[in-house]
Amino acid sequence: MTQDVPVLIVGGGPVGLTLGIDLAVRGIDCLIVEQRREVTRHPKATLLGARSMELLRRWGLDEAVFGAAVPPDCPYAIVFTTRLAAHELGRFTGPSIADVRARDAAAAARFPELAWSPYGKTQIGQQALEPVLRAKADAMPGLDLRLGARVVEIDQDADGVTATLEPHAGGPRSTVRAAYAVACDGGGSRVRKALGVRLNGRGAMRANVSFYFRAPGFLEAHGKGLANLYFVFAPDSFGVFTAIDGVALWNYQHYFLDPAKETHALDPAAVLAAAMGKPFDFELLATTHWHHHQSVAARYRSGRVFLAGDAAHLFCPTGGVGMNTGIGDACDLGWKLAAVLQGWGGEALLGSYEAERKPVAVRNSLISAGNSDKIDMVMAEVPAGIDAPDGDGQAARHRLSATVHWLARQFNSTGTHLGYRYADSPVIVADGTAEPPDDTAVVVPSTWPGSRLPHAWLPDGRSTLDLVGRDFALLVSGSGDAASADALVAAFAETGVPIRCHRLDGDTLATLMERPYVLVRPDGHVGWRSRHPPAAAAAGAIVQRLIGRPAASGAAFAPAA
User: Fold this and answer.
1) What is the pTM of this model?
2) What CATH architecture is 2-70+122-199+298-368?
3) Mean pLDDT across the stretch 172-176?
4) Where are the domains of the chain?
């Protein structure tokens, strides 16, 4: 018997679950097939950036994430050491979850990123995030989460996708027929390989091994206090410890500068003792062998099958954008699939998925690879006597501290997470103005078409971001008049596209919006803006462009800047 479903999602990690929830919220039934019955044991990705938190906020999941993350009073701290229990070289700090939730003026003065988003970086391992997302998915009508099964065959024709499912524990196979399928099945994606899509970029850069362990006495052993990351810069022991729960669970990524280094014949106790600077008690929970990557799929789509998350791109962990980029993929593709399945979205809307998300993956993967190169360069130049107690050792540590201070700038990455935008998208109406700067550290809030809508707190305690996310939203501010935009609203209504209008009062919000009329897509990105409301003919062309249907002429897409 064949099961019919609008969307088949292959893979139920954070990206697949995010896509499934996004579709279900929009009223689209979907099936997620995940071969693991249990959530991942290994933390893998350990950071949710501000943009991912904003996207999860739409579904009320931010508090659940905070509850599963590191302790709320733990500042986002990165500590640099020779060995963890030896010499500290410097540290980088950011706002804690408590700072974020309190909206504290003193914290806002210390951390500029709190003005750019309701969130900072949230430290949470994938093993803790997946249960939050699974619980939400289980509660969503129309979302079928099929655990303990895998897709073994996938074919497509002009009308849909046919997939063969096999229970992981054995038993009869079954068939699923879907209008569309999305591969969220990881870096070794069987679907991507079946489609014959290659990965471009630098590829696998070097080998690493991760030791995930339980050690209640870890903080006492090193005495540096609770932090998110602890870097170790010793010639025989390069790597980084990561807080998983901030109490007893930790992970150590052991780095090798030699890309040909064999990672399997290692003694975990010896590796961890060298990184700590002395032996300590621990229980090894898992060992993972992996590579740094800078790889992006040549294509994000083949007919009715799409790639998302690690199936579409593989990053270095230096930057914390891998899983976050995948979550962004899901929230870009979700509303577009829903629009097409509901009848108001055009084929160009689906075509825009690759046009928008692939450049973001290239950008983010290059940022992450550049960060990795900088860390490798510093590690390669650490002298053998870095731990020596004599004057030469002290001088070497002083020089390394200065280098580490330069290196730490890469962790001020709010611009990386919030500053990406969809330039040259076929479903964005450009206004001819210059693109704002793209700075990894600093966010330049802007409604430049293709940008994420800027955040600001409203008088009622909501964020401007809370005004968008389900339907198109027209934001009117300053000299704008909602009544004068009737032609635009009517053009949406005639096409059957849902839209909501919001009036933003006050000079501050008018300045932030930059234009009196700002039209925001269901994913929270600006689709069009203008100083003046469009006439009826132009309004119709604008709507057609935004929903991926042929526009009458390009002249309609030149509102006054």
Assistant:
1) 0.95
2) 3-Layer(bba) Sandwich (3.50)
3) 94
4) 2-70+122-199+298-368, 424-557
